[in-house]
Structures are given as structure tokens and as C-alpha cells.
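I am hoping you can look over what I have pasted underneath with an eye to the fold:
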Amino acid sequence: MTSAVPTPRSDAAEADAEPETPARRGGRRSIAAALLFGAVGAALALLASRQAWAHGTASVAGGDLPLTATGSDVTGVPAALAIVGLAALVAVFAVRKAGRMLVSLLLALSGAGTVAAALLAANDSGALDEKAAEASGDAAARIGDLSHTGWPYAAAAAGALILVAGLLALTYGKSWPAMSGRYERDGAPRPRKAAPTVDPDRPEDLWKALDRGEDPTREA
């Protein structure tokens, strides 16, 4: 004999059965892309700042002394902005509405600033001139045989990744989820929504109440 009682179905199963919309897929993809670009860009900018950006020689009493200037010797801006951008990337998910737009703008500006600072310093010789003057004891000494590496352009590419993360946050950030805000600032929990009314004449309502751990026979 076939039972007239419908097969139980949980709310989670019903939610899983709902078709995924293009907007939801796009939102998840934009979050993943922003996190990836922002994190990789910040890490690359910090790495590039520790690498050699320029080489040269200084004339000293014993001959020519080879000198090297790292990215942090040339300019500390890319590394500093990478840290700011990484902090902004995390903060995007901690704020909402206008605050999220401001943080997203800060993230984008951090990337743009990293690009500009790296490109402006790509052919800089000031750091090596200072080292040459210190090594030779002559304040007017200048570096010779100057050459540059590709690390400044790697830092610029890192800034571009951070910039893309910021633009994604500005474009799609309004639809991104935020950190859990169940508790208000005063520490009191937010009021819970009232449990839905159970109709005893509807078997599906009884099953849903059981799935929620409620007693459908209890009177309100």
C-alpha cells in the first residue's frame, strides 16, 4: 500500500535544488578573481622590492667597486602601497555600502600608485649615486657602468594586479557578502525571525517543522 505522506525534504535540499543564476555565478567569480589578483599582486610587489633593481660600479682607491641597489633602496612606495592594498582587500569584506566603496577605491588607488612609483623608479640612479659617494668618500661621486633589471616592471605588473582587484571590488562589491554581523555593536544578539506558522492540514509543513527541530504538535 502506497503511503499518502510525502517524502521529507529538508530546506537545505530545497535551496540546493534552486537553479543558480548568472548573477550569483558572476558574483562568486568576481570575488575569487579579486582575491587572487590582490593577493598575488601584493606578494609580487613585496618580492620585487627586495630584488636588485640596478647595478653599477664606483671608483675607489683600489679600483672599481661593484654596487647594487634593491627596490627598497630605490623607493619604498611599492612595498608600502602593497601592504595598504592587502589590508584594503581584507577590509572590503568587513564593511558595507559606502564604506565598501571607499575601501575598494583605496584598493584601486594602491594599485595605481604602485604602478606609477615602480615605473618612475625603473631608470633611477639616485640610490646608486648615494652608495658610490659613500663608498668613495666623495660626495660628488657618481655611479658608473649603470644597468637596470626587470624587477621594477615586475613591481609595476604587481600594481596592475592590485588595481584590477580594486576595479572588480568597485564594480561588483555591492553584491559581495560581508562578514557575519549577527551581533550588534553593543554585544546584544539581533532578534531572530519568528518561526513560520505550521498548518497541521499540510503534511509538507509538518515535515519542514521536524527538519527545523520543532514540535509541530505543540500549540503556539
